[in-house]
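Quick start: read one record
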Amino acid sequence: MTVSFKKNFSVKKCLPFVILMLLLGCQKPEPQPIPEQVQKQSEQDETVDLSSLCKNIENNMSTINAERTTFALEQINQDLKLCLPLSTFAEQKHLLVLSNQMYKNFLTVDRTPSQQVAFETYAFDLAQHPTIQQSHFEQLNLRDQYLLKHKGQAYIELFDAGKGLVNYRRSPEYLAKIFAPYMPQAEQVFIENLATQNMMPVFVENTLMIEPHEIANRALFWEEYLNQYPKSSYRKDAEYLLHMYTQFLFKGMNDSPVSETYTDQYSIQSSSLDEIEKLARVKNSYLALQATKFLQFLQLSEQQRLKEIPLQLSSKQQQSMSENQLTLKQLDQYLGLQNLSLSKTRHCFSDSVCL
């Protein structure tokens, strides 16, 4: 039997199939994985570059002065984020000190007397009315003009401390965001919490700007911090903060005292008395013990105080003291308060570390 193809078989019908096969044959091969040796070389180059960057970072920080831009400052901050995780704790602390000086240099403005007046007027008005259009901008020092235009960048703030006191500062958030995440837990907790506490002014001149409730919370925080991190490198600063907030709580400041006489509970500012009474009920706290003794002190008569709280003062010293000064001396001794004044060498109420 003879088999024959039908005449209607056409090559045209096969063309699509042929074309498809040709196209598949022309496709580029799948990309091959990068050889391991090439990957390792790339990683080594990156390590060398990072090592060089971190080696030069101290020198780069030292070049920042009052003629540099916020862009230069931001670049160094980005470099710090790369280098801090690779640094020892001692190196991190060293870079932190350098960063303090770097910002101090950057924010220094050499003004003439007239420029100083113009700055104080302009900055105060700007702090009170951020959207106001100022007509004396051109009277400012050129560096002031630059910094005012770029405030908010590179952690630069115009800080209103009240009573007409306005100036530049590095935001307390700077160390909390740039340094703290890479430091040991004790130092990280210290920096992050002090940054939060110092975002707004604690006091202006001799007047407290925060309420007794906040003062009590901060005193309790620093007490607990010292219990939890007894070996913190910031221990002495935490002790100072605890003592200062304890004083603020029980005595206030000269222009915002807790009491004028301490004769009884009615002579105490009501908001302060409420917080001290709450504090006295806290368990396992030396601050609570001091609060309890404070309430006991208010119940003592003048004669009882003289008898139960003998002061080591000469007759001449006692005679030269006012009645209020004598009472405060008795209160210090009865509560075991360290009668500290604001330190001229340790500034703990403007940044996230004591400067």
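The first helix runs from residue 15 to 26.
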